[in-house]
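ingest -> validate -> predict -> emit
validate: passed (alphabet ok, no gaps, 354 aa)
predict: started
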Amino acid sequence: VFASGSVDPFVLSWIRDTLAVPFMLALSIWVEGVHPPSRKELWKFALVGGVGIYAAQLMYILGLFLTNASVASLLSPTMPVMCSILAVITGQEDLPRLSRLHGCLKSGGILLACCGAIMIVALGKSKSKGSDDDDDESSNARFIAGELLILGNCAASALYLVLQKILFFGRAGQKSELDAPNSLTAAGIAWRELPFTIIAYCYVVGAGFMTLTTMFLACVSPTYVPKDTHEHVSRFDVPAKAWIVLVYMVLVTSVFCYCAATWANKRLPASVVTAFWPCQAMAGVLLSVVFLGAIPNLFDLLGGLAIILGLLAVCSGNHLLDAEERMLCKNDSDLQVGPDINTSLLGCLPEQKT
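emit:
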């Protein structure tokens, strides 16, 4: 529906977010209870919600409007690569060691996936049937701008998961200042134990920003010109077929996907969580060809293949690294914590009883 342009993408995203908020709040209360944040913690939810919900969705709907679903699906696998880079920069994950196999796989996978993304942006162009403006210079510029917006969406989504780690969950398997009293709820529960509550509050912030954006656009220009008709209609004119899509968007892409990703981000490294994103790439291309008539060219396919192979290497490297760290923890679990103990092992040593 976004790519076809039959309905204002901002209005569609606003309706989606507005309808998803009650479901998320109800789920968080049902599973974890009521845990309102304190005033000094509001900035955390505002930052995570503003980046991961609002900014990411804003760039995605604009990018998808300027391109098509094939490009969005083929570029989305860059998010795990960006997340791995951000996790290393922020200290949430270790820098890959090129002297070990897992380090080579992770570094090589990042390089290969980035080359694939560059190939799609610079050389690829998924064309839609019946377009008469494919060779027009302004059309090409709009298409490249849309691709850059999709990449911006991937970066914002990656940053969103890393910020969740920094502000709420901490580095997997290690203690941090997040266990301090000022990071506890009024009931004395650590925020890291409330993933559904965290995403519900962050989504409220994102939905609020999207509401302000939609209302501002409605005030500036109350009409919208769909791609298929080129006639001015009300921005809030939503056809019946769009409501069918909205049901799926609310229940699956918003409630389920965001809650599942946050729940997994509590337990796994952020780069591992995002490693599953490429699964949607090939499905998106196939559905785009069937329903939208998009035709990916050779560079789109080669770039997408490079991204998938690169991410397989990243996932393999993460798996080998995790297995190595578990073995180290097992071998050193009987050690007493001392000043000369490697701090990277502190998270897997058993707590000493006093």
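The longest strand covers residues 127-128.
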